[in-house]
């Protein structure tokens, strides 16, 4: 089947100036790392001239001096101890401004007037707010809300007492369940109960073994001369490389 193709592969010859070959060479040159760094490698072989007065060197020195902490604080260090014209610290404008800022930020000084005036507030006893608070306290007070009644003494043979006892016996849980006391301690088998039967039915419905039949349990014999089998064999022979 592949004999003709194998023979054609040996007789194919591509000209070196075809568009596909030229395009492949151009793409190879574009993606070549050696050609990409060729100019940089040649520039490195020529060497370089880095004088002390070169512009990059001056730029680097200026950047270093700007970023240097010593140069940044040089003026401040020189001005230390040269404050002249202030006989005391209070007359120095910078120190006075710092003291004023500290006083504004001080929480104790900020609340001094409020703390002094807190204990000087006097409210008259008949003020509207005080009266409203007293009325509210009376409304929410448990002592004024609950007024316990005196204890009544009833005779045991009164009609209302007898009726109350009968109603209490009807509502009592002990009296309500007294007819079931004879069942206490008697054994009972759950076999045949509604819940057990329902659980068994649900188990039978969910049982996969009873619901479906395994393929290996089915009796099946393939027919060797059916059209599908014959067609499959023919296709296999046609596609066989041997």
TrEMBL record:
Which domain of life does this protein belong to? Eukaryota
Cross-referenced PROSITE patterns? NEBULIN
Show the GO cellular component annotation of the record.
Answer: Z disc
Gene Ontology molecular function, alphabetical? actin filament binding
BP-aspect Gene Ontology terms: cardiac muscle thin filament assembly
Keywords from the named record: Actin-binding, Repeat
- PANTHER family linked: NEBULIN (PTHR11039:SF37)
Entry protein name: NEBU protein
């Amino acid at each position: 089947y592949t004999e003709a193709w194998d023979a054609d592969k040996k007789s194919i010859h591509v000209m070196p100036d075809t568009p596909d070959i030229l395009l492949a060479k151009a793409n190879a040159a574009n993606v070549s790392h050696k050609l990409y760094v060729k100019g940089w490698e040649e520039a490195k072989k020529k060497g370089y001239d880095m004088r002390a007065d070169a512009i990059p060197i001056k730029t680097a020195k200026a950047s270093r001096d700007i970023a240097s902490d010593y140069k940044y604080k040089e003026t401040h260090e020189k001005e230390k101890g040269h404050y002249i014209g202030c006989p005391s610290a209070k007359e120095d404008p910078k120190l006075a401004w710092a003291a004023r800022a500290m006083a504004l930020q001080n929480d104790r000084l900020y609340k001094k007037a409020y703390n002094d005036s807190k204990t000087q507030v006097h409210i008259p006893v008949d003020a509207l707010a005080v009266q409203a608070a007293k009325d509210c306290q009376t409304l929410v007070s448990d002592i004024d809300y609950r007024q316990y009644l005196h204890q009544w003494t009833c005779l045991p043979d009164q009609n209302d007492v007898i009726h109350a006892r009968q109603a209490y016996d009807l509502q009592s849980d002990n009296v309500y369940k007294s007819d079931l006391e004879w069942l206490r301690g008697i054994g009972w088998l759950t076999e045949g109960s509604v819940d057990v039967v329902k659980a068994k039915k649900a188990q039978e419905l969910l049982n996969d073994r009873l619901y479906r039949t395994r393929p290996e349990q089915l009796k099946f014999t393939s027919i060797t001369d059916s059209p599908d089998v014959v067609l499959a064999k023919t296709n296999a022979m046609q596609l066989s490389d041997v």
